[in-house]
Amino acid sequence: MSLLRNITSNIYEVRYINSNINNSFNNNIDQTIRNKISTSGSDTSYRSRCRWIGLYVF
Predict the structure, then answer these.
(1) What is the pTM of this model?
(2) How far apart are CA 4 and CA 24, in angstroms?
(3) What is the full per-residue pLDDT of the chain (58 aa) written as tens digits?
(4) Side-chain-facing half-sphere of 54: CA atoms under 13 Å
(5) Which of 2, 7, 21, 46 has the fewest CB within 10 Å, making it most exposed?
């Protein structure tokens, strides 16, 4: 039973770390887009696409 608990806690840790990586990745892209693109339309569409990619990474 303790082995099962260890496995599940490890899975949760990996998920948590991975979601942090995704968030920082998306934030970096957001910043890059803000710096390079002035039009708001393409800005939002590109950011939403990156969020979807982040959801499918794990």
Answers:
(1) 0.23
(2) 31
(3) 566 676 666 666 666 666 666 666 666 766 666 666 555 555 455 555 555 555 554 4
(4) 20
(5) 2
Distance in angstroms (rounded) separating the CA atoms of residues 42 and 47: 8
Q: Which amino acid is at 23?
A: N
**Distances, alpha carbon 54 to alpha carbons 5, 6, 10, 43, 49, in Å:** 27, 26, 21, 17, 9
- Single-letter residue type at 58: F
Q: Give the distance from CA 54 to its chain's centroid.
A: 4
The secondary structure of the chain, three-state, reads CHHHHHHHHHHHHHHHHHHHHHHHHHHHHHHHHHHHCCCHHHHHHHHHHHHHHHHHCC
